[in-house]
Design brief:
The structure is a single chain. The protein is α/β, with parallel strands linked by helices and 307 residues long. It has a domain at 2-151 and 185-211 and 277-290: Rossmann fold, CATH 3.40.50.720. The protein is 42% helix and 18% strand. The protein is built from eleven helices and 13 strands. It has helices at 11-22, 37-46, 86-103, 124-137, 159-168, 187-197, 218-228, 240-258, 266-272, 281-287, 294-302, and strands at 2-6, 26-31, 49-52, 70-73, 108-112, 142-148, 151-152, 171-175, 181-182, 185-186, 206-210, 216-217, 234-238. Strands 3-2-1-4-5-6-11 form a seven-stranded parallel beta sheet, sandwiched between helices. Helix 3 links the parallel strand 4 and strand 5. The chain is globular, with a radius of gyration of 19 Å. 43% of the residues are buried.
Length: 307
């Protein structure tokens, strides 16, 4: 099968190309800059074709789906900068790729959403993800939607962030109470489900939570990171009002002075205060996933090099 992948140079996208290649599929990826180092490395390593275009510009994707059998739509952001807003990237971007897929006569469409997505969500991130899901559900394509929890693995921006912070700082910040619940899921499991869904007719028209079998509070996740890296650090609880002030400052400074998305924003703080849990059983049974404990999963990469 030939698969068109959006978001292929990201953390999940790299693992997706790996799993698609190992499963015998050929790939074509969407890239804003076909000459960038990450794109060239992906093209070489996974023998993928490259179509230069932007998810925000439907016309730029025309012709990209010629000869393709399925779309894996991964594009997403967790922080905004410039025109890359939640509404643009998640909702308008999905609208564009769905329109191009339908025009190309595409049948199979696998969509990356997020656990916690719902119409009455408090965060704009989750609201924009819900609007994107609605577009997919009404597309007339043979769709499958996956809603991952926090995804971890080599190169993630969550576990590795705290591991790096604990290397240099005697203090680890905890936003709010730290008691919100999460079910971290391995990036390998996420990619495996997407790839196996391509050939699984029972997954068509279905929505699956992708989450681990264990539930942790944010504070427990920090404790495990410290345990695995053999470090002792002070956990400092920051009141939400202070965290919001810091996030608002970063939202102002980073886009204007550095032209980059801020490392923390107020929308993320909203999500960090919500439980992010789901039912892992349907996806694990249909796609044959083998449980791996969160501790075992992070040991494999946090101890493979100094972090």
């Amino acid at each position: 099968m030939k698969v068109f992948v959006t978001g292929a140079t990201g953390f999940v996208g790299q693992e997706m190309l790996h799993r698609l290649h190992d499963a015998g599929h050929s790939t074509r990826i969407l890239a804003r800059d076909a000459k960038s180092r990450r794109v060239r490395e992906a093209a070489t390593r996974w023998h993928t074709e490259v179509h230069q275009g932007n998810i925000l510009d439907a016309a730029s994707m025309e012709g990209g789906l010629n000869g393709v059998d399925a779309v894996v739509h991964l594009v997403g952001i967790i922080s905004e900068v410039g025109q890359n807003t939640f509404e643009n990237v998640h909702t308008r971007g999905t609208e564009n790729i769905v329109a191009v897929a339908r025009a190309a006569g595409m049948k199979r469409f696998i969509h990356m959403s997020a656990l916690g997505t719902r119409p009455n969500a408090a965060s704009r991130y989750h609201k924009s993800k819900w609007a994107a899901e609605e577009i997919v559900r009404q597309s007339g394509l043979a769709w499958t939607i996956f809603r991952p929890s926090i995804i971890y693995g080599p190169g993630d921006g969550f576990v590795n962030l705290f591991a790096r912070m604990s290397r240099f700082s005697p203090v680890l910040p905890v936003m709010g109470s730290g008691q919100s619940k999460f079910q971290p899921v391995r990036v390998e499991d996420v990619a495996t489900c997407f790839v196996r869904a391509l050939g699984e007719p029972n997954s068509i028209g279905q929505i699956y939570d992708l989450c681990g079998t264990e539930v942790f509070t944010l504070e427990q996740i920090l404790d495990l990171v410290l345990e695995v890296t053999a470090r002792r650090r002070i956990k400092l609880h920051l009141p939400l009002w202070l965290a919001r002030c810091q996030a608002a400052f970063l939202e102002f400074v980073f886009p204007r002075l550095l032209g980059q998305a801020p490392p923390l924003n107020r929308d993320q703080l909203i999500m960090l205060q919500e439980d992010n849990v789901g039912d892992p059983k349907p996806a694990r049974e249909l796609f044959g996933l083998k449980p791996v404990s969160f501790r075992e999963g992070i040991v494999r990469y946090l101890t493979s090099g100094e972090r």
